[in-house]
Amino acid sequence: MRSVGGFAAVFKPSRVRLGRMIDATLATAEREAGFDLALAVTNGGDEPVTLRFRTGQRADFAAYEVGDDAVGEASDDGDEMSGAGDAAVPETDPVWRHGAGRLFTQALDSETLAPGESATYEGTWRDPPPGVYLIVGTLTAEESEATATATLAIE
User: Fold this and answer.
1) End-to-end CA distance of the chain
2) pLDDT in tens, 28-48
3) pTM above 0.85, yes or no
4) Where are the domains of the chain?
5) Which residues fall in a compositionally biased region of kind Acidic residues (predicted)?
């Protein structure tokens, strides 16, 4: 577990195939009135990978409320969580979603990552209430299920 100011975080990167290997990691950083989220995706393969997007949104972030015992633990029982790549996502509605209520350009676009190249997509959760949350960062590219998670305890 790593503490960032008032935040305690456990990072669980996930690795998902998108035709070739895409690694996804999620980082958080405390800010005055909340925290910044950064989803980094890296082409771990030997060939270029083209990420195709239907809108200007490149990543989405969601916060799910979880119990105190979830910090540092992953659920394998399948009762409360379902798999999303290697990330376990609660089957409840998120308490916050970065893309909710936002408008994104409605244009097709793409980005190509050379082998070993990374792209980082960011979001900010402003004024989160105290609690323990599973933060899920998801790449919004077509045919992609690349996700990464972090468990945050906010005091």
Assistant:
1) 15
2) 988 888 989 999 999 999 999
3) no
4) 2-154
5) 70-80
